[in-house]
Design a protein that fits this description.
The structure is a homodimer of 288-residue chains. The first copy, chain A, has 288 residues and is an alpha/beta fold. Helix content of chain A is 47%, strand content 14%. The first copy, chain A, contains ten helices and ten strands. In chain A, strands 9-8-7-6-5-4-3-10 form an eight-stranded parallel sheet. A two-stranded antiparallel ribbon of chain A has the order 1-2. The model of chain A has no long low-confidence stretch (mean pLDDT 97). Chains A and B meet through helix 7, helix 8, helix 9 and helix 10 of A and helix 7, helix 8, helix 9 and helix 10 of B.
């Protein structure tokens, strides 16, 4: 199944036969005090730096989150989505826990956006799915309800419920991207194994595209980039078709690209070779 | 199924629930002119450097190959195996295409060695399996005969034939490690996909342990360490339980260790953390 996202001028398709889709996650104030302070003053100039870095790193889609409890998130999202479309032709993923902010972003977005996110909770489904449907967007759906289940079968059932509810609102399965919930291995050693099994159930039972917040896996462990990279590539072989990840990490981007080479989605490694040469050129330029 | 290897004082077990087994492959003159010249003069002093580097890098087993057409390989193997056992307590993998050299190495080896290798060709089976049986060794068996088949099913059938022939010689399946044949992706884009499928057939049909020459995959491509690392970790999720690889590559060793973390064979990432700290300490020491 293929999920098509669009900006005003560019189309990106997520699917099992397509290159692994890198959803750049950096444009987010979580844990960034300076960016938070800027947003509280209505200053979105940081987007210029963050978007340039994600694009340079190789993101295919950009997640835009400007959530801050002390800021006017609805107004910020409207401005951020307009500004992001001036700065890049990549499709956007409009990311907020505030429904009005999602709607404000969708209203000014040109193309077919990804919305981040809905869950399996009835009230979230009933509030968010009509907005997604009205704007003809696609949506990331977390495989949890009021609890985060660890059992793959339970996550699968929530995913199936969401796909069904979306259908009731006229949203086809190809416009649902299930977040299969990457959890810290440091807290639960079988977290990745359970994640891979969840992917298998979703792939075989629903066939929809999947994503995750890839860096969650390594929380609390050292050498996080390397571990995240292997998590991404290994998850790809179990059916993961996209990840929300920081494209500034060459290790993680290489994980996605290596998965493409290994699974014959990058014939004769041409994309891999291109990335390698671009990095060599950048390193040579930096060395003067 | 578990394959037990032993030196005089140390046991290493290869198996799906065990840490991924790194068979250090550096002790081999292929492509190394200086080492070849030393061997031709009967000089095996290079072993001291090579073995120290493989051990420091994290190898669990050491492959010993002293093959050179202009040298006395039988005599060299006898001396190399004796010397290697003085230098390390890791179990050895005695590697030669010359049957007399395999036998010479086994005669002086203390413990239960791995022999590299036999193929599915009748004459090789009939020549090598009795030697393996007589010395109570384990053996790597390449899933090819006079040709290297690309079809997973054909490789599986050769593997099955070898396991059966080994049984006729009193060698149990747990003492067979099938080399599922990693081939260059640069020549055949589906080489890794076919390899993963071969692993699945072997795992489900025979349950024996598996290995491969991991670096073959990236032949002809840039960024080989990164690609090899992802090949190793991804193959591990499909059932690969060991690889013949250069433990001097931190990326490749990390691939094996990351696979252990992701598959809960390294509970709470303790092994991963230990490696990270050891590297930090080594870097600090190097920086003075």
């Amino acid at each position: 199944m293929e999920t098509t996202l669009q900006s005003a001028s560019k189309t990106v398709v997520i699917g099992p036969e397509r290159p692994f889709c890198i959803i750049g996650e950096r444009i987010n104030p979580t844990g960034r005090k300076a960016f938070q302070a800027q947003l509280q003053k209505g200053d979105i100039s940081q987007l210029e730096i963050d978007i340039a870095e994600q694009v340079a790193g190789g993101a295919h889609v950009l997640d835009i989150n400007v959530g801050d409890p002390l800021a006017d998130e609805v107004g910020l999202m409207r401005r951020a989505v307009v500004r992001a479309q001036e700065l890049t032709d990549l499709p956007l993923c409009i990311d907020s826990s505030i429904i009005e902010a999602l709607e404000a972003g969708l209203e000014v977005y040109q193309g077919k956006a990804l919305v981040n996110s809905v869950t399996g909770e009835d009230e979230r489904l009933e509030a968010i799915l009509p907005i997604v449907a009205r704007h003809g967007a696609a949506v990331i759906a977390l495989a949890n309800d009021d609890e985060i289940p660890m059992e793959p079968q339970r996550r699968y059932e929530i995913a199936r419920k969401i796909v069904s509810a979306a259908g009731d609102h006229g949203i086809p399965p190809e416009d649902i991207v299930i977040d299969a919930l990457a959890m810290p291995i440091g807290a639960e050693p079988r977290a990745a194994v359970l994640f891979f099994e969840t992917l298998r159930l979703i792939r075989e039972g629903l066939g929809v595209n999947t994503t995750c917040g890839a860096s969650n896996t390594s929380f609390g462990l050292p050498g996080r980039h390397g571990l995240n990279a292997h998590f991404i590539a290994t998850a790809s072989t179990h059916g993961l078709t996209s990840a929300i990840m920081d494209a500034r990490s060459p290790a993680c981007v290489d994980g996605a690209h290596a998965a493409d080479v290994l699974h014959a989605r990058d014939e004769y490694g041409m994309g891999w070779i291109r990335t390698f040469r671009a990095r060599q050129a950048a390193a040579a330029a930096a060395a003067g």
